[in-house]
Amino acid sequence: MDMKNKAIEAETKMLEDGGTYLNRELSLLEFNRRVLAQAEDPAIPLLERLRFLCIVASNLDEFFEVRVASLLAQHKIDRADGLPDGLAADLERASAECRHLIARQYSLYNNEITPQLSEHGIHLLHRSERNAAQRAWVKQYFDREVRPLLTPIGLDPAHPFPRVINKSLNFIVELAGKDAFGRGSGIAIMKAPRVLPRVIRLPDELSDKKGASYCLLSSVIQAHMADLFTGREVVSYSQFRVTRNSDLWVDEEEVKNLRQALQSELHSRQYGFAVRLEVGRACPQHLSDFLLNQFDIDRSRLFTVDGPVNLGRLLEIANTHDQAELKFPPYVANYPGKLSGPDLFATLRKHDALLHHPFESFQPVINFIQCAAADPNVVAIKQTIYRAGSNSELMEALIAAARRGKEVTVIVELMARFDEEANINWAEKLEQAGAQVVYGVVGLKTHAKMALVLRREPGGLRRYAHLGTGNYNPTTAKFYTDFGLLTADADLTADVNEVFIHLTSMTRPKQLASIWLAPFSLHKEIVRAIRNEAELARQGKPGRIIAKMNSLTDESVIKALYDASNAGVKIDLIIRGACSLRPGVEGMSDNIKVRSIVGRFLEHTRIYYFRNDLKHDMYLSSADWMNRNLFRRVEVAFPVRAPALKRRVMREGLHPYLKDNVNAWELSSDGRYRRRKARGKGADYSAQQVLMDMLGAAAAAAATANANNKEEDNGTDPVAPR
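-> structure tokens emitted (722 positions)
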């Protein structure tokens, strides 16, 4: 048997064993391997490596809070029967992958990151590493700030096991000897107060001349554990942390006021059923067994860690420490010159404006709403809000518009995971200002990113719109890659208006001229466009699909892509996170390539390109190709029509990512990703760096200077019209 046949046989066996689709949970964990690789990369500045390490910790928290919790919640588990075989196998594989990831995390933290931080004067001090002066200061800090807030609970019938909040820092303590009443209660539980900082910076005079010393709250408490149990011997102790199910659930069809129901439910999120237990490396097995029993967690979800139980807390050091050489060089986004004129609406009447964040500033989007709020000719503003953040100029502008008497309608998604509280607060403020606030459609999350402005002009009311692939959040817009379109196009803005009417009235939307809308037409149109490429390929014409998104897991879309591949369509997919499509399998997906880009910025853009017999259909969207986006959310995909803007999306949003050999990872048919590297003597090519160089403020300033120099050299006046 030749090598090719052997390879085909091996792939066939793999497909029989692993199926047509890759496991979503394992694919998510593969994504975190790629993020962790950023923390491992010595070419990345040290504090940024620490940041990536913390991001992995945060991502794994969410993996257990949401994905593992969801798997468990799908089944009403009877302990006598155990887990269903398929679920047990999925959890076992996911747990094994998590253990590999977590072991590498802590090895990297202990053996590389922490020692190298110390070399640069950033000392994260363990108890044994603190000198006499530092120990004295820590003791004073403990006595003054910590001890008064601690409440150790010695367990007995009158002191039951306390309720432990999701992801909080806690301690279990084993005691010897008798208590004050002559009884031998042997275990105490102690919560670390949430009001205390988890990372504590010591006074600079106690550190190196140019350095900074930090210690963790857990280290401070553990150093003085014996002081808390006078007359008892502390036999052993351990920090521990419980991760709980964090999905909120309300019966939207039964509740009368969704906002009030969610406000009540937010508190109970802290006490969802437990899905993971983390303990310190030195925790005795009988203590971890005791905790597993208390929280009803299977031993397979016990994780013993060699360091703090929450590495994510160290993000405080990466965020606040000011050694510039240990961070990425500052990047200043360019404000597009075409939008810098005095009348934004006049500019948009002439041409659409495409914005590419974070390479270009998010400020034009804020200005769009601020101008609309201040303009006496604007009579109405409508906008969707998914994740606005707790501080937002944009939201303040909507409030100001409502106070000025404009008709302001805001669709606030109250079920945006982990942003519910901020969104509830904004909804209340908007209502108090006089805005009309609704919460989308019962049973569906409103994930579409749209803003509509109605302005009274000499020819009558005119519509202006912004549509985007990312959230209306100025903070995340600085490190999430997204496209946004500002437009006065009559057809497109009419469609946006119809979508808003649909969301507020709950009537079925009219036939839309331009926009693909989930859950009605988006899935159908995506599959139709894929099948159209397949049909063109069968006719002997070139078929081509390029798509970029966060996740690809919908089986019906994947099946359509497999069929297109078999028809001869060349397909490139740029999928940052989970991907259930198995590429490169002969006879199934041999014309499909999948890559993931993980770099300085979070890749968040959704782009769908279909060659369509040289019509070059280009869509931007809020939706990934996932079942939830296509059928259980309100999403939009909108066309980019102007040829120049299509070329921009291709030039900036797709082609650089297909050329990347620095931050690119290629997915193999076995579900593993391999890092792509420059071949031979080829130069390194980072898509994100190329775009920063191309679109950043420095590049824009240099281009302006060059233009001015040329005009001066030609003896022309750079200001005079031509």
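Confidence is low (pLDDT under 50) at residues 1-17, 76-80, 251-256, 710-722.
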